[in-house]
């Protein structure tokens, strides 16, 4: 233990020092459950690959703005104070044809396109780039290649003789150049030759070596691809850069890379861009062949001005092809049971997102996505009967009208069949949460349902790993430049941010309720007191309008078990289980002794003691709040023979205060009001 740590005296000379017992034991660190997962429709970003996102600008640069509800949900999460999110873009199986393809080149004075090529050995491969992610977002991409003259130096006229150089380097002396001290360049670099008349061609550095010249001096030598012309007076070391710009209307992303123009260069153009760019990747048709054949980028003499790009194949948005299996990982017709114990199946959609190890919350804002479909046709009622006459049968009710475009892409909960489909999808997500027993699935009461219909909808769920929120909240566009029109956003996204922010600020015992929804400007339905009285006991968490905004009034799960009715209790128990699992791994393969069990008990008690101080338990003392046992009764000899150690942990979680009951007592000439708290 080092000095200044507060656990012992300062250390002096080297030697063996005694450390007091227990000085190295620290309180176990609880597992954090504030990371939220979002799965939905986006115009860009990798499909079926969860990406960690730490802010709204980071999300915008990676996934952009599209027709789905995903950007609204993520922006609502960060607006509440959430800090960690995993975002997964859902989509149909990958298709290369859906990626934008760009060619590098330039137009001549006759407006003819001249492609830039990688050349050598009688071959010429046009340089092409492919958008990193599929979609029409990349149709405005531009890629610019620029050759920039660098340091210029004279060709040495007093160099050692060719015979001396050849003997020292083992290379053809007429292809050797000795650069001045301090000028260094790797193999694959480009040199521009200058003569008395100006341009004298280009040369490539094929190899570098450290040779010994007369007088025992060692010098850096470059081996060129061809001898210098006799008229060469100076050399210019040429640098190259690639600039990529997506020209996104919500805020452009610009990338720049210093590159080499030969595969021999350590920052070969194709490799450097492939490793660093989030926007483009080299088209495999040229990149692999160019590297294998050592083909260099063809540059003219004099060096060309910046070389631009043009779109050779437009990317395609395939929103209409996103199906149920893309959202859920498999269609509803297939059972969600774990039929892949070896983990060999390729997970997609929400199933893939559920594999993230530190996920604590999960919401799917575009779960009702049904593909971009035309607007439904309304059924016109027949002409009304003449005045004074009543119809013999009731007039047919017109079908619901849905607006074409993005709104038409969602299931309509007012249509019974579509409501049944949506609820089945939500149940599948809840089943994933039940199977993982690690995160909470945050669901939304579907739009357009009355309070009684919402109560009927809720009857299809019974899980302590799920919570429901109602009603939907209006959010202004999260990016400047868009029309300032509020759009309804899933309330679960606001709840996810509130839950995460409360955990970060006050820990798990602080219930994620009684908070205003930051950024919400309107609400889909104003819930009356009677409707709230109906929904709250059912475990539906309601946002209610107040003077300052819309307040989340509860933090309940969808469990019918009273022990796990409160979200804080469920999350606390999950945290304890995950933390004990992580913090107890060191016990494996340790000798099973009474001393080991005692240390393990102390280790667990440290964790529970910290939670007791944070107010996680209902007892007034530690003894009333938790116990930890690993005695001989739990670990008899037959259990020891199996290499097993049994630890029993009991806790008494505290529940959030939900009601204040006022007791009115009327006397002969007075009225007494007493306040009594009730959970």
Summarize the structure in words.
This protein is an alpha+beta fold. The protein folds into 4 domains: 258 residues, Rossmann fold; 219 residues, no CATH class; 32 residues, no CATH class; 96 residues, no CATH class. Helices cover 22% and strands 25% of the residues. The chain contains 15 helices and 31 strands. The strands form 7 sheets. The protein has a 9-stranded mixed sheet with strand order 2-3-1-19-20-21-26-27-24, with helices on both faces. Strands 9, 10, 11, 12, 13, 14 and 15 form a 7-stranded antiparallel sheet that branches. Strands 4, 5, 8, 16 and 18 form a 5-stranded antiparallel sheet that branches. Helix 1 packs antiparallel against helix 2, helix 2 runs parallel beside helix 10 and helix 9 packs parallel to helix 11. The longest helix is centred in the middle third of the chain and has 21 residues. The protein starts with 35 loop residues before the first strand and ends with a strand. This is Phage tail sheath family protein. It comes from Streptomyces kanamyceticus. Belongs to the myoviridae tail sheath protein family.
């Amino acid at each position: 233990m080092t000095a200044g740590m507060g656990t012992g005296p300062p250390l002096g000379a080297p030697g063996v020092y005694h450390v007091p017992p227990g000085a190295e034991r620290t309180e176990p660190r609880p597992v954090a459950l504030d990371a939220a997962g979002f799965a939905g429709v986006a115009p860009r970003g990798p499909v079926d690959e969860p990406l960690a996102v730490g802010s709204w600008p980071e999300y915008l640069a990676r996934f952009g703005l599209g027709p789905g509800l995903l950007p609204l949900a993520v922006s609502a999460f960060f607006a509440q104070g959430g800090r960690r999110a995993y975002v997964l873009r859902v989509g149909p199986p990958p298709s290369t044809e859906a990626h934008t393809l760009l060619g590098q080149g330039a137009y001549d004075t006759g407006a003819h396109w001249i492609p830039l090529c990688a050349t050598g050995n009688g071959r010429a491969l046009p340089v092409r780039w492919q958008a990193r992610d599929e979609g029409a977002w990349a149709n405005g991409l531009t890629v610019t290649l620029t050759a920039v003259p660098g340091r210029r130096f004279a060709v040495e006229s007093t160099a050692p003789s060719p015979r001396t150089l050849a003997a020292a380097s083992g290379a053809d002396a007429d292809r050797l150049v000795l650069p001045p001290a301090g000028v260094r360049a790797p193999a694959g670099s480009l040199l521009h030759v200058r003569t008395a008349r100006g341009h004298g061609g280009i040369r490539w550095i094929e190899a570098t070596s450290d040779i010994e010249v007369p007088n025992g001096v060692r010098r850096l030598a470059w081996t060129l691809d061809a001898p210098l012309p006799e008229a060469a007076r100076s050399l210019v070391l040429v640098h190259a850069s690639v600039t990529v710009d997506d020209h996104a209307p919500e805020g452009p992303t610009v990338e720049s890379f210093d590159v080499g123009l030969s595969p021999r260069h350590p920052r070969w153009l194709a490799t450097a861009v492939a490793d660093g760019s989030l926007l483009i990747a080299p088209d495999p048709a040229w990149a692999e062949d160019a590297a294998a054949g050592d083909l260099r980028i063809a540059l003219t003499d004099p060096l060309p001005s910046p070389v631009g790009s043009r779109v050779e194949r437009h990317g395609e948005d395939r929103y209409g092809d996103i199906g149920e299996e893309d959202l859920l990982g498999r269609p509803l017709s297939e059972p969600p049971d774990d039929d892949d114990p070896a983990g060999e199946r390729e997970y997609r959609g929400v199933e893939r997102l559920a594999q993230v190890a530190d996920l604590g919350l999960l919401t799917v804002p575009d779960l009702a996505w049904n593909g971009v479909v035309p607007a439904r046709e309304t059924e016109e009622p027949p002409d009304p009967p003449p005045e004074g006459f009543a119809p013999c049968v009731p007039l047919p009710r017109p079908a619901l009208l849905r607006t074409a475009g993005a709104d038409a892409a969602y299931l309509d909960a007012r249509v019974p069949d579509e409501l049944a489909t949506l609820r089945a999808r939500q149940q599948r997500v809840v089943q994933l949460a039940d199977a993982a027993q690690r995160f909470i699935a945050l669901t939304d009461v579907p739009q357009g349902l009355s309070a009684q219909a919402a109560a009927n909808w809720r009857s299809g769920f019974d899980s302590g790993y799920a919570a429901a929120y109602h009603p939907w909240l209006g959010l202004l566009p999260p990016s400047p430049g868009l029309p300032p029109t509020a759009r309804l956003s899933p309330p679960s996204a606001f709840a996810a941010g509130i839950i995460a922010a409360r955990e970060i600020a006050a820990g798990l015992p602080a219930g994620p309720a009684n908070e205003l929804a930051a950024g919400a400007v309107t609400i889909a339905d104003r819930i009356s007191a009677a409707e709230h009285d109906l929904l709250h006991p059912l475990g539906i968490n309601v946002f209610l309008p107040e003077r300052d905004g819309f307040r989340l009034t509860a933090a309940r799960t969808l469990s019918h078990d009273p022990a796990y009715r409160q979200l804080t209790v469920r999350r606390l128990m999950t945290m304890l289980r995950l933390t004990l699992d992580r913090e107890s791994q060191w016990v494996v393969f340790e000798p099973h002794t009474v001393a080991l069990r005692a240390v393990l008990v102390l280790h667990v008690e440290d964790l529970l003691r910290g939670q007791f101080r944070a107010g996680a338990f209902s007892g007034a003392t530690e003894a009333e709040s938790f116990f930890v046992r690993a005695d001989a009764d739990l670990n008899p000899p037959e259990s020891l023979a199996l290499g097993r150690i049994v630890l029993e942990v009991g806790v008494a979680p505290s529940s959030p205060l939900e009601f204040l009951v006022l007791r009115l007592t009327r006397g002969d000439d007075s009225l007494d009001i007493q306040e009594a708290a009730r959970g």
